[in-house]
Amino acid sequence: MVGRDFARSTRGPVDTCTSAKLVWIPFAKDTVTVAVRSDSLLNDGVSFTTAQLGDICSCAETTHNGVALTPLLPHSGSGTRTIFLDKIGLAEARVGPCVYPWTQEKRRSGAGHRR
User: pTM here?
Assistant: First the structure.
């Protein structure tokens, strides 16, 4: 009997050397969205357009309605980051220096970046 391994992934294999040996079977789909801290002045039902999110992540827009923005993205190379940037139409090379890395490990420990 052939062994079967399963892994959770946001996207299919991108490694061309092993992708011929792997079978990608999506059985659930992830969604990405924007999160705002509960104590933020932006937490009043604000809705950003994809163009605004692109401007925020490229640091072209650093405030919104007078509120300073501190954009966080998952680490470079992650599937979630890649999908989010694709959805807002922003190339990785255009992510600005105002964007801070965010990881699940920081979230779990409560040590996420705050400004």
Answer: 0.69
Burial of 88: CB neighbours in 10 Å, binned 0-12, 13-18, 19+: buried
Rounded alpha-carbon distances, angstroms, from residue 3 to 6, 9, 18, 103, 104: 10, 19, 16, 32, 30
List pLDDT tens digits, range 72-84: 999 888 888 998 9
Task: Answer whether 64's CB lies under 8 Å from 90's CB.
Answer: no
Per residue in 7-35, pLDDT (tens digit) is 666 666 666 665 566 676 777 776 788 88
Report the phi/psi class of residue 63: left, alpha or beta, with left for phi > 0 and alpha for psi in -120 to 50: beta
How many Å separate Cα 88 from the centre of its chain?
A: 10
Element (H, E) at 56: helix 50-57
Find, among 101, 49, 43, the residue nearest to 70 by Cα. Answer: 101
| Distance from C-alpha of 66 to C-alpha of 42, rounded to nearest angstrom | 10
DSSP letter (8 states) at residue 40:
S
Tell me how far apart the alpha carbons of residues 43 and 35 are, in angstroms, rounded to a whole number.
9
